């Protein structure tokens, strides 16, 4: 589909979704965002749903301003995927050992590494810039400096919620490795600190929603936020790179006879800010639950833990600010999913996938998410499908 345009106070709202299927709370949030004095454009992805301040699945382009709550608390959250030389014919019938090895190697949930991971010892890890990255820790907000050791030990760990590590097959029978994670606790604490700072600023007192408080250009608060934001986005990128290197080592060890090789890793943020230029104007583009889909950009759009995922290539549609959806998108809250579904439902909906099937992940049941095929179909003018994957193993926190 192409987009549906709805009127907004300052800019039209371009929706790659049927407005009739979007919950009232999310529609109100979109209208609220369209009232911001600094806004220059608003694009809404097919996985749109209610969030904090701004909806998940929205692309907010502003001139001279950025809204920290619209980035979200998991700064730099995103996806990584890599195609391997393994095929379905190389795989054993039981993948439970592989799942156990992944869980032994990569901490999940609130866990972290007991010893710091040295990326220089990892196969193929891009170490350029690593020392410079950590040297800049002292330059981020004083409020989080006491978290340095925790941040270092969480580097290369998954977290919980909707984060996952998957071992997948594409339709040709090739094996892919895929994972979803972000900036862990350090990103969350930086986000919460800056959201609190933005709410205190005088220019934000008259906003329709205090969660839409912004920092504006040429102020110390904006400079401090941009510094911390871009550092946290780097943290998230390194976090995924370390996990992917560890994951590849597990796969090499489990399939020694196959002498596994890997294609270049595809990686993309979906909660972040980028400096981009549209219609001759420099803008700060916030993608909250959206990926960049510029012409030729590779991206990853996952479904849920039982429905498969897509590798895509961007078509460079400037009406969406070169963006596409970040996943299937929730169609019910976590609490609603827990009330409605049981572990038996989870077992039924994840049949054939080696994964947790206990009460702790019922809120991640596939039925809590929108149908991924429908979400992909609604953005055919934003991306083309390169590969469709189905998971064989799914590790969750």
Automatic annotation (TrEMBL):
Residues 323-342 are annotated as: Disordered. The keyword Manganese applies. Its cofactor is Mn(2+). InterPro entries: RtcB, RtcB-like, RtcB-like_sf. Signal peptide: none annotated. It catalyses: a 3'-end 3'-phospho-ribonucleotide-RNA + a 5'-end dephospho-ribonucleoside-RNA + GTP = a ribonucleotidyl-ribonucleotide-RNA + GMP + diphosphate. Residues 328-341 have a biased composition (Basic residues). This is 3'-phosphate/5'-hydroxy nucleic acid ligase. It comes from Streptomyces lichenis.
């Amino acid at each position: 589909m192409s987009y549906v345009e709805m009127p907004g106070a300052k800019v039209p709202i371009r929706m790659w979704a049927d407005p009739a299927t979007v919950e009232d709370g999310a529609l109100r949030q979109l209208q609220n965002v369209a009232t911001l004095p600094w806004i220059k454009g608003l694009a809404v992805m097919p996985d749109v749903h209610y969030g904090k301040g701004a909806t998940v699945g929205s692309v907010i382009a502003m001139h001279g301003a950025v809204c920290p709550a619209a980035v979200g608390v998991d700064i730099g959250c995103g996806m990584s995927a890599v195609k391997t030389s393994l095929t379905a014919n190389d795989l054993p019938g039981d993948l439970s050992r592989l799942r156990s090895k992944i869980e032994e190697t990569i901490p999940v949930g609130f866990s972290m590494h007991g010893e710091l991971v040295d990326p220089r010892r990892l196969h193929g890890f891009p170490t350029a810039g690593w020392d410079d990255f950590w040297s800049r820790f002292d330059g981020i907000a004083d409020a989080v400096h006491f978290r340095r050791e925790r941040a270092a030990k969480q580097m290369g760990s998954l977290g919980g919620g909707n984060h996952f590590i998957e071992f997948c097959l594409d339709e040709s029978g090739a094996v892919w490795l895929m994972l979803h994670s972000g900036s862990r606790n350090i990103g969350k604490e930086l986000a919460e600190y800056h959201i609190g700072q933005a709410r205190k600023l005088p220019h934000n007192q008259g906003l329709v929603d205090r969660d839409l408080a912004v920092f504006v250009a040429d102020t110390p608060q904006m400079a401090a936020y941009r510094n911390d934001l871009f550092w946290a986005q780097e943290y998230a990128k390194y976090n995924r790179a370390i996990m992917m290197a560890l994951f590849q080592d597990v796969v090499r060890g489990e399939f020694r006879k196959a002498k596994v090789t890997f294609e270049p890793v595809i990686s993309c943020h979906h909660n972040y800010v980028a400096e981009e230029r549209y219609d001759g104007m420099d803008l700060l583009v916030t993608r909250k639950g959206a990926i960049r889909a510029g012409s030729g950009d590779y991206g990853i759009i996952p479904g849920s833990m039982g429905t498969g995922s897509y590798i895509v290539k961007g078509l460079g549609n400037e009406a969406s600010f070169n963006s596409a959806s970040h996943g299937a998108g929730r169609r019910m809250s976590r609490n609603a999913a827990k009330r409605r579904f049981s572990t038996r439902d989870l077992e039924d909906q994840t049949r054939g996938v080696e994964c947790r099937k206990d009460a702790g992940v019922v809120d991640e049941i596939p039925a809590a998410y929108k149908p991924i095929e429908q979400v992909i179909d609604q953005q055919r003018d934003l991306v083309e499908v390169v590969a469709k994957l189905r998971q064989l193993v799914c590790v969750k926190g």
